[in-house]
Amino acid sequence: MIGTDPLTVLTLTPLFVGFGLLILPQLLPSKNAKSIQKVSRSISFGVALGLFTFATYLSFKNFSGIDWLDISMGDYILTNEPTTLISSIGVSWIVGADALSLPMIWLTALLIPLSMLVEWDAKKGHLFHPLILIMEGALLGVFVALDLFVFYVFWELTLIPMFFLILVWGGDDRKYASMKFFIYTFTASVVMLIGILVMYFSTDGGASAGSLTGHHFDLIAMAAQDTLIETEGLRHLVWLLLLIGFATKMPSVPVHTWLPDAHVQAPTAGSMLLAGVMLKMGAYGFLRIAVSLFPESTVIFIPLLVVLGMASLVYGAWVCMGQTNLKRMVAYSSVSHMGLIFLGIATMQPLGIAGALFMMFAHGLISPLLFAVAGAFKHHYHTLEIGSMRGIAHHSPYLAAHMMLGWMGSLGLPLLAGFVAEVAILIAFWMTFGWLVVLPALTLIITAMYYLSSMQRTIFESNDRHHGILPESLHGEDPTDVTWHENTGMFILGSLVILFGILPFIFFDMMSDWSTKFLETILVAALENQGVNP
Amino acid sequence: MIFLTNEEMKLIIPELIMLAGLLGIILIPNFGDAKIRLPLTKIHLPILLGGKRFKSTSNPKLPNRLTMIALVVAFFFGFADRAATGDVGNTLSVDSFSRVFFLIFTAALILSTISAAHRIPARSNVKPPNESDSESLTSRKIDALIDNRRQVDFHIILLMVGLGMSLMAMANHLFMLFVCIELASLSSYILVAFHKESAAGGEAGMKYFIVGSVASAVGIYGMSLLYLWNGDLSFDSLAASWAAADGIDPLAGIGVGLMLVAFGFKVGAAPFHLAAPDAYSGASSPVAGLLATASKAMGFVAMIRILIGITLPVEGEAFWFVTIALISVITMTWGNLAALTSDNPKRILAYSSVAHAGYMLAGLAAIGSGIASIAATKLILIAIIFHLAVLVLFKFGAFLVLSLLETEGRSHRLEDLYGLGKRAPLMAGSMFVFMLSLAGVPPLAGFLSKFLMINGIVNASVASGSAGSVSVLGWMGTVNPVFWLAIAIVFNSALSIFYYLRIGLVMFFEAPETDNPLKSATSLRLAITACALLTMILGITSLGDSVLDIISNAVETFIGN
């Protein structure tokens, strides 16, 4: 059976607890629904906190003293003894972490309790928190699984709790948003599955091969195989199929349209997880599978990556300027920032890839902060319209401070986490593509423009020293100030944004070492084959 | 010799148990306190038959329980003795191949029995209507009385279906095969029409009967041609003559072709599937589920016996390869396209079942292409049988959910599923699992079976593509056409996701039409939950491997013959 190694425990605990909390209350009489809700909330939060502690402990215990340059590519830490799940088709339970997945694992473990915390008082019934726990298990599973079948299962499993989070606890237009979210991402994953199947059929036997089929899903063994798919054309096709799956999740223009709708309608916790971790699954999968296994295709398709990345970056930022809805604006800014990740990978420089990795992490701190702010804004002013509430600084200084910090982080203010990533990517981009860097650099100005103008209209611009100019949606009632739990959640995220802005090397060193190694062992040969001088 | 020897009896214990159950249902409800007086004495001897029935024997729920017991015990014996091998008389032979199908049939029948108990309920405390009763109460009471009266009929026919199916799986003689298929088919026609209070039920039964009997007639004509050709209809003799023949005798070829019409109707292959949607939507859900799983499996046993067992050449392409390949692609595409445009959940499931027949026919076609190695042939056969086995879980599971809805009225509009997520979350969740599994989403059982099928086809054909091609198109030009069958399955599965999701999503998106709680129907709900759990467990744990082991033993027995 599946062992008790740390990553397995980390992944399966939230799944079991979550499903247990989901089903057990069905057996109890419905009279004490209220107390069930409280108990379920407390247990979920406790488990999430425990897992966060465990993840932090694991990170520091196992990863602090490691020189990442010593670890060759394809070696993982915290691995388990591979266990066969379905021997007939060669599915095994293999987990492991490296510098690519470790920050994501820690980030997931961090954001789950925080997302529960900011909506601590919301009356969501007893199913809300268990669903978030299931979400945690599925997300961690995506990041730790080293078997493509298991990876795919977890990848699809993340859809289901998020679908219900939007559908049940979302805004007015939640049906449309959740349907769109589900159909977009599901269809894209099916396309990705076809790619995975072709890869599967190209594996030779081996220890983990299925007894009936003679193939396996083992990612490590796939990477070790000389040429995974012999036909070059088929290789490119598979790479493209994978790209469709990953780019839709990230999301990149032109398959991004589900994201703004899903974000606007999702509850705060859902938005935080969606922006914070779920989008990163796309970038993670792209690096872990598409780039690692098909470096030559990646090199050939660099222009495509640049076009996709640039289009997302510029288009996302451009559309942001016209948004009047706070969440929609943040959602499009996510599209824009995800574009930077593609650009970072396309540079084929250690610095660029490390920047992309750090962007994944930094955006995973900043965008949840922004969505927590937007959630609190909606909660207290009953609107998401930018400019309908003016002078938050007067009425609610804490919320104003968090909002400002989030926006500054997102537009890349020095000494905040986003800056490190953006600068690294831009420098690397300049090193590879020269003056083309003007376009992304100018986009950062657009970013600054829309953030500063929203800031002006929302936070300041009021003469009323006590209340600011209140939105009509309050119908003349006095708004409440942010609650303690919202404040705590946003404070923690804000401090981390500052911490990783000042001390980025906590993760950045590890990432840049990993990127150097990644480039040396996997990409350089491919680049040389294509006649590009690395 | 008419009587069976002890060994033969032992081999067919499960069938004998079914037969005993059948007789039991006929006899036991008639037991009463009738006595006869010995002439010229005052001694009254109880003879049990007739008179006032005992409380226990007059219980209208008795036939259902007896059927259940007979089926479960038969299943248990069949499972325990699944490796037994031997001949019974001249026309039946038991081996693990036939036993696997016996288990599939019986499992479907058990589910059918469970749901029939709620779909056509027996109520033990119904009183005849009084004059003072209101009109609606009177009609309800009369309905209940009619339901009580027809319990015996329904369950007898159900067991007949089971008996016919399990005997046909054991038949090693074409004539016996046909007689058993007819036993099962004629009984299933009655079951389809059993729902006679609605006009749709009668119409469905009539349609299914007419089309079915025409198909059977064509098949019997084909069989007679084969008899003219060979003079002996046992499978061994047919296979030997077929292998010995130089080329294909037109008589034999036409005979096999005509028989394929009959079997094509059974599995729901295009263009013989046209009666299926009407039959499924007119029949009550327990019966529709039976048609979609057990009846389809029966058709595939016959196809495998004839196509693989008799007419498959040792090397080279089988003469039916192109036909079956074309039919499979047409069937799956037609089924999926028709399902996309339908608004009736039962019709959607019927068309989906047509599409699934197409996937399995694609597997058969790949075997007949002549490029499949023995290992690939085995793999595809395992995939087909595994698919038929797990269909019982998720296809019948979906029909069980519809039965649950039918207990409160009707289930032939998509609107009837609206808001199920609110009214019965666990049932809606299970239905969602069934739909995803039908669509073939990992890690559910439906994925595993479809995956093995694709794997077999790809293993058989992928080596034919030239590895040196640089472009995808170049490679595609060189690969054997069989490879395209796998692509067709993949594309059709992608297409099918939309209508499965449609059923899955309306349960959560739309507001329910009524707020009345669903009928509790504990055993039915338990069965649905069990099906959903098994669908998940078989897909991801080693239990799936154990089932595959049993099936691969069966396939080895079959191929070895």
Category from helices, strands and their pairing of chain B: mainly alpha
Number of helices of chain A: 21
Give the topology string of chain A: H per helix, E per strand: HHEEHHHHHHHHHHHHHHHHHHH
Mean pLDDT of chain B: 88
Cα separation of the termini of chain B: 26 Å
Largest sheet of chain B: 2 strands, antiparallel
Give the strand order of the largest sheet of chain B, numbering strands 1, 2, ... along the chain. 1-2
Q: Give the class of chain A from helix and strand content and strand pairing.
A: mainly alpha
Number of helices of chain B: 22
Question: Care to describe what's here?
Answer:
The complex is a heterodimer of chains A (534) and B (561). With 534 residues, chain A is an all-alpha fold. Chain A has a domain at 302-534. In chain A, 70% of the residues lie in helices and 1% in strands. In chain A, strands 1-2 form a two-stranded antiparallel ribbon. In chain A, β1 and β2 (91-93) form a beta hairpin. In chain A, α2 runs parallel beside α4. In chain B, a hairpin with a 6-residue loop joins β1 and β2 (44-46). Chain B has helices at 6-11, 13-27, 55-58, 62-80, 96-119, 135-170, 174-193, 199-230, 235-244, 250-267, 275-282, 285-310, 321-340, 345-368, 374-406, 420-423, 425-439, 445-461, 472-478, 482-509, 522-540, 542-560, and strands at 35-37, 44-46, 86-88, 92-94. Chain B has a two-stranded antiparallel sheet. A two-stranded antiparallel sheet of chain B has the order 3-4.
